[in-house]
Every structure is written in C-alpha cells, then in structure tokens.
C-alpha cells in the first residue's frame, strides 16, 4: 500500500523549497526502487494509480514526487522564469538533493527512474550525468530535441489555458496552476529554446534503457525514441499503437507489462 504524501525541504537556486512525495510499498525493503518523474504539466497526483500498479506488477518499491512549481510542492517565485537549462537543473541539482533529503544514497542503492515527457528528459540527463547512481531508466514520450509538432501542441495548450476550463482542471492537481502552466509553457515557447537538444549528452548513458512512445503522440514524433536508440545502443524500444502522448493513461496495461518485464529482466527474480 502507498503511504500518505509527505514533504521534505531542499535548497535550490538560493532558496528552500518543499517537495511533496509519496512512498509506494516501502515494506519491500530489499526490492528495486522506481522513482517517478512527471510530465511538464504533471504532479504526484496526476499519475493516479499507475505507479502503484507498476510497482505491484514488478514487485518494486516506488517514490513519486512533484517537482518544485507543481502539485503541492513550493510554487515558482513570483516573476521567476525558467532558463534554457531547466531540465538540466532538475536532473543535476534538484533530483539528487531530493534523493538525499528522503534518505536515499543512489550509489549504495541505485534507483530506477521512470519519467514521462519532460520527466523522461530529466531521467535521461540524470542517467548521463550519474552513471554509478542509477540502475536503469524507462523513458516514456521523452524529448531529446525540439520538434515543430511539439511547439504547435504547446502553443495550442496556451490557447486552451487562456480560453477554456484547462486552468480549472489543472487546479485539481496543483495548488498554484499558474506556476505549473506558465513555467512550462513560457520556456518551451521561448524562441531560443528551439535550439535545445540533449542528443550529444545522452551518448554517455550506460544503464539499461527502455524508451516508449505512442504512435499518435501529439507532442513528438517517433524520431525522439529512434534518436535515443541510435545514440544509446542498449536501448530497447516500445512503440504503442492507438496511443497519444500519455501511454500510462492510453495504454497502461501494455506499458506496465513491458516495463515490469524489463525491470525483471535486468534485476532477475530478486524480491
């Protein structure tokens, strides 16, 4: 069973931020740990029951959290704009600080990372930077470069936020929906961000890697995961038909089956 969410404090960018998190099946003390990294508009709550279902299928522990700016974690400061390196900051600074704050030594007990969208890119950046501090990664609808399709859909999301009930719907999952939405939307649509790419950096990844994407993804083409496979030879690909940008919602059973089999394949039958 999952524990109720809790908070820890970390120092980031010159201030203290609180990060909400929840453990899944902490009683499986010797089992692999999966850390879940949400999408650009996501949060702990927006995963719904997917982390629990995957952890049960794979007999793993889980740790789900909301990055600063999202969910019940500390919102963005007023007028704070994220930089072109915002995903690097999350991978190289915030995630390691968060793991330390909750008592995880990732070298002694290397976690698995499962990330979706921006969270998947963060997982890739962490894996490239901290080769000795990760057991493996599952990246779902990752971004390794900026495509016109992505920008078109993100611009459409801006219109929806301004003109429809999207803000009210996001308010169910974020204490400050403006913090979550504009932090993500403004940087992705910032003209210099068109040149953003992590294609070269991910070549340093050495851990087992499963890259999954829906074939109807409205935020990226299959070139995103094919590009990963060309640069990280051990990558296994999962292309999901009848599936958009959120495989954990559109094709949850297929993703859970593939992800749990991949983890078991890498870890054996250890409980």
UniProtKB/TrEMBL annotation:
<dbReference type="GO" id="GO:0016787">
    <property type="term" value="F:hydrolase activity"/>
</dbReference>
<dbReference type="Pfam" id="PF12697">
    <property type="entry name" value="Abhydrolase_6"/>
</dbReference>
<protein>
    <submittedName>
        <fullName>Alpha/beta hydrolase</fullName>
    </submittedName>
</protein>
<feature type="domain" description="AB hydrolase-1">
    <location>
        <begin position="34"/>
        <end position="258"/>
    </location>
</feature>
<dbReference type="GO" id="GO:0016020">
    <property type="term" value="C:membrane"/>
</dbReference>
<dbReference type="InterPro" id="IPR000073">
    <property type="entry name" value="AB_hydrolase_1"/>
</dbReference>
<dbReference type="InterPro" id="IPR029058">
    <property type="entry name" value="AB_hydrolase_fold"/>
</dbReference>
<keyword id="KW-0378">Hydrolase</keyword>
<dbReference type="InterPro" id="IPR050266">
    <property type="entry name" value="AB_hydrolase_sf"/>
</dbReference>
């Amino acid at each position: 069973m999952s524990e109720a969410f809790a908070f820890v404090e970390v120092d980031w960018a010159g201030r203290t931020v609180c990060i909400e998190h929840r453990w899944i099946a902490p009683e499986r003390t010797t089992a692999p740990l999966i850390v879940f990294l949400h999408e650009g508009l996501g949060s702990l709550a927006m995963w719904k029951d997917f982390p629990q279902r995957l952890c049960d299928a794979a007999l793993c522990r889980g740790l789900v959290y909301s990055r600063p700016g999202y969910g019940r974690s500390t919102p963005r400061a007023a007028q704070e704009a994220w930089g072109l390196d915002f995903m690097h900051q999350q991978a190289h600074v915030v995630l390691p600080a968060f793991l330390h704050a909750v008592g995880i030594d990732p070298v002694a007990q290397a976690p698995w990372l499962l990330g979706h969208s921006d969270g998947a890119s963060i997982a890739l950046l962490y894996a490239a930077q901290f080769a000795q501090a990760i057991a493996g990664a599952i990246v779902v609808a990752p971004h390794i470069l900026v495509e016109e399709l992505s920008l078109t859909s993100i611009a459409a999301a801006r219109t929806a936020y301004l003109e429809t009930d999207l803000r009210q719907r996001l308010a169910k999952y974020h204490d400050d929906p403006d913090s979550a939405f504009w932090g993500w939307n403004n940087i992705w649509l910032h003209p210099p961000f068109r040149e953003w790419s992590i294609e070269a950096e991910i070549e340093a990844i050495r851990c087992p890697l499963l890259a999954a994407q829906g074939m109807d993804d409205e935020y990226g083409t299959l070139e995103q995961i094919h590009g990963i496979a060309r640069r990280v030879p051990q990558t296994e690909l999962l292309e999901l038909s009848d599936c958009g940008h959120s495989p954990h919602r559109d094709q949850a059973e297929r993703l859970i089956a593939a992800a749990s089999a991949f983890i078991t394949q890498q870890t054996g039958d250890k409980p």
